[in-house]
Amino acid sequence: MAKLVLSFQGRVLEDFPLSKERVSVGRAPDNDICIENLAVSCRHAVIETLLKDSFLIDLGSTNGTFVNGAAVTRHPLRNGDYITIGKHSLTYHSETYSSAEADVEKTIAMRPTMKRAEPAPIPMIGKLTVQNGGSAGREMILSKPLTKLGKAG
User: Which of 31, 13, 54, 80 has its CA nearest to residue 44?
Assistant: First the structure.
């Protein structure tokens, strides 16, 4: 059975097995996966599972849903997909892929000359350049789906 692992700032919060055909994600407490964060819509997204395939569907959320850094409205999920909703992330793990991956890793372990490829870096989404003032010329990389500017308060 596939599962989603909920994380915040790199810390794992909870695992959610995809045991139902439709799993809801959002800020409202009646969602299957409740994420208490104002950047998350009350009814943000759903994961629909048919047989062994899962699909992520954004429900018209205010701040969007991102898979591996790209905004999506409907997306077939693959093992290891990194879903960003607000400031939280969900990592999709497919059980069928995991067992096949484990067999491959056993084979690779027998060949010490082969090195595992590094994961691809998350692509830069954008760049902001300060045009005037004390910080003129300063560049800020916009690598997150949501970036706040200015001082809090």
Answer: 31
